[in-house]
Amino acid sequence: MYKALDIWLPAYLAQAKKRPWPHRGAQPLTICLAVADHFEPFWAGADEETASARLAAWERDLPRLVEGLADSRERPPQHDFFYPLEDYRPKVLDRLAALREQGLGEVEVHLHHHGESAAQLEDMLTGYAHKLHSRHGLLATDPDSGQVTYGFIHGNWSLDNSRPDGQWCGRNDEIGILARTGCYADFTLPSAPSPTQTRIINSIYYASDEPARPKSHDSGRPARVGLAPEGDLLLVQGVLALNWRQRKMGLLPRLETSDLGAHLPPDPGRIPLWLRFAPAVEGAEHIRFLKLSCHGAPEKNHASLLGEAARRTLGELCTRYNDGQRYRLLFVNCREMVQAIHALERGEPLPW
């Protein structure tokens, strides 16, 4: 868990000095919370029957999980399914679209790949986005260009060929390809302790593609009130921090990556750390964008993500962190999260 510390620890130590907790601002702390699920029902080579059963667990238990829970607008928690391009099955996408129709979240793009040409990768992403939109009623179009747009998660965290061994991607120009094919934001990170982790952490920022080298998103310009979008791709990161309240072997701090699962179950005790380090648009630090992530399909994670631990954590957010005085909670999907970011950049209030 402590691999590649040199990549991100200096940035973390600098942030820790500047981010006190609890929040004591003049305005309530607004929490925009989204969940990005790397949803892979065919994980580990599963057959059609196993994949269908994994999806059935979410069809059955997700409505139960969120029943009676609501944010400051009386909206239930949202859960976005980032579904792998390479595992496309029309019946699976139709079932995910039905969850979307129930108001439980969105479906976005996930991809594991390696070695395609730029043209091949561009065709893959464009074709998949159009298929999700035209055949399944998913995704949305840009109101000006008419292009189908999508949120993105890179399989194996290897965005822009960021693994040192060059595996699981192979394209140094991937950020530019994503921009051309309608990606409205990337939600891959954090990836620590993987060496694919960037030096920028706990941030919302713009990366510019440098096709001559990998990992162009290792640097970028933060989103800021009053500044228009810049560069090729917006990246919305989850929280990366050291959790001294949950120690390994009673001594070393556990790594907090805002990930949820059997290895890191949802826990109300994690919420203060999430809120302390959740990214913000510079100039609007009273609004935090908390992106949690998970791998929801494998059976080993169902109890943590759909059971009592998740219900208890969501309940804590809906009560203690939604009192209207110190905190205001907004359950959003990933697309709405980005819409809110752009509103703040324009100097406008949140859309809700």
**Major beta sheet summary:** 9 strands, mixed
Topology, number of strands: 14
| Portion in beta strands | 15-25%
What's the shape?
A: globular
Distance between the termini: 39 Å
CATH topology: TIM Barrel
One letter per element, helices H and strands E, the order comes to HEHEHEHEEHEEEEEEEHEHHEH
Number of helices: 9
Structural class: alpha/beta
| Number of domain modules | 1
Low-confidence stretches: none
Tell me the radius of gyration.
19 Å
* Percent range of helical residues: 25-40%
Summed over residues and divided by their number, the pLDDT gives a mean of 96
Query: In CATH, what is the class?
Result: Alpha Beta
- CATH architecture call: Alpha-Beta Barrel
Tell me about this structure:
By secondary structure, this protein is α/β, with parallel strands linked by helices. It has a single domain, classed as TIM Barrel (Alpha-Beta Barrel), CATH 3.20.20. 30% of the residues lie in helices and 20% in strands. It is built from 9 helices and 14 strands. The protein has helices at 5-18, 48-66, 90-101, 118-136, 174-180, 271-277, 302-306, 308-319, 334-345, and strands spanning 29-38, 80-84, 107-111, 140-141, 148-154, 183-186, 204-207, 221-222, 233-236, 241-248, 252-256, 259-260, 287-294, 327-331. Strands 1, 2, 3, 4, 5, 6, 12, 13 and 14 form a 9-stranded mixed sheet that branches. Strand 12, helix 6 and strand 13 (287-294) form a beta-alpha-beta unit. Helix 4 runs parallel beside helix 5. The N and C termini lie far apart (39 Å). The mean pLDDT is 96.
